[in-house]
Design goal:
The protein has about 375 residues and is an alpha/beta fold. Among the domains are: about 105-290, Rossmann fold; about 310-370, Orthogonal Bundle (Arc Repressor Mutant, subunit A), CATH 1.10.10. It is built from 15 helices and 12 strands. The strands form 2 sheets. A 9-stranded mixed beta sheet has the order 1-2-6-5-4-3-7-8-9, sandwiched between helices. The protein has a 3-stranded antiparallel beta sheet with strand order 10-12-11. The longest helix is centred in the middle third of the chain and has 16 residues, at about 125-140.
Length: about 375
């Protein structure tokens, strides 16, 4: 259980918004130091020891207060990973996003969620199917999650509005994109749905924010349905992330003559279930019946007993061994552990310090590569 004081939440936000602190490093820092305040104190020295040339400056307390005031001023709530009210499926993602802003009623996130995603330039038939599917899923007591984009996303939200739908944005919860969905955005909030974002309120989405948006869509959902998608599309990234998280992946089959059907047909070829109506989704979810909610992912105690942490000489050797295994092509953390012969704790500690130094980066697919 984590602390709920305003100061603790502010420090949690500060650490999550600090340069070079991604979700993997954030979790490692919390596990190593136990609290965000202790992690913030240790950051400059950790980065320096790992080879960072320029200084690392955490988000200031006043900047964090400003973000919290901006979010709460528009009626949004800040959820921090590891807290009891953080969406449990998202908390079980490896690693979860450290913070989440939610505007509107968060209750839909407590129900079983199903993502319905697809092409922006969707066909009229595809949009009609997505809207009908979302309506039927909502009537069955499920929450439809999507990304508020044009095409399939917009149709899915429209169909699920009467029962409460969740729109995940790449920008802040107030960054309505595309602008043509301003009425849909307002309608989602009016009808008891919610707007979700990892980004700070007031932030305008950039290209790099959309993979994180897709990861949250997958992480919130027990199943992802792809209605229409070309072979190279963000919807297929969402489906791949969902499969890696152990979620159900379904696809709507389509004509091989339509490029918008090739992505879904390829998913089916790879083993995704066929979706022709809401009953197919409900059958796919049958395996989750009675499934216990995941335990909170963060441990709020240091993961080493006092005095057991490696010396700096030993830590330098560990960092060097891990860094020597890095290349421009991503490797999984499991591969690094296996090839290095080190413990998981040592590898995670080394990778966290190397990310702080700017020498390695974690990829959206869970890999790690040279910066």
């Amino acid at each position: 259980m984590i602390e709920g004081s305003p100061a603790f939440k502010r420090d949690w936000l500060r650490l999550s918004r600090t340069e070079s602190v991604g979700p993997v490093t954030f979790r490692e820092l919390i596990r190593r130091f136990g609290t965000p305040s202790l992690a913030l104190e240790a950051l400059p020295d950790l980065a320096r020891r790992a080879g960072r040339v320029t200084s690392i400056t955490p988000m200031s307390a006043s900047q964090a207060d400003d973000e919290i005031a901006a979010g709460e001023g528009m009626g949004a709530r800040l959820f921090i990973s590891g807290a009891p009210d953080f969406p449990p499926l998202l908390a079980a993602v490896d690693p979860p996003p450290p913070v989440l802003w939610v505007l509107g009623d968060p209750d839909p996130l407590e129900r079983t969620c199903v993502a319905v995603v697809g092409a922006r330039a969707a066909s009229a038939l595809g949009q009609r199917f997505a809207q009908t599917l979302a309506t039927d899923l909502g009537a069955a007591g499920l929450t439809v999650v999507s990304g508020l984009a044009r095409g399939i996303d917009g149709a899915a939200h429209t169909g699920a509005r009467p029962t409460g739908t969740a729109a995940v944005l790449a920008g802040g919860v107030d960054d309505v994109y595309p602008a043509q969905h301003a009425d849909l955005y307002a309608g989602i909030l009016q009808d008891g749905g919610c707007i979700v974002s990892e980004s700070a309120p007031g932030r305008t989405a950039t290209a790099g924010d959309f993979p994180r948006r897709n990861r949250i869509i997958a992480g919130l959902s027990r199943a992802v349905v792809v209605v229409e998608a070309e072979l190279r599309s963000g919807s297929l990234i969402t489906a791949r992330l969902a499969a890696e998280m152990g979620r159900e992946v379904l696809a709507v089959p389509g004509s091989p003559l339509d490029p918008r059907s090739r992505g879904g047909n390829d998913l089916i070829r790879q083993g995704a279930a066929i979706c022709e109506d809401a009953d197919d989704v409900l059958r796919a979810l049958g395996g989750f019946a009675g499934m216990a909610e995941p335990e909170l992912d963060f441990e709020m105690e240091p993961d080493r007993t006092p005095g057991s942490a490696p010396s700096e000489t030993r830590m330098e050797a560990i960092r060097n061994r891990v860094f020597d295994l890095m290349s421009p092509s991503p490797a999984t953390r499991d591969e690094v552990v296996r090839l290095s012969g080190l413990t998981v704790a040592d590898v995670n500690a080394a990778l966290a310090e190397l990310e702080l130094s700017g020498r390695v980066v974690f990829t959206s697919g869970g890999g790690v590569a040279l910066a």
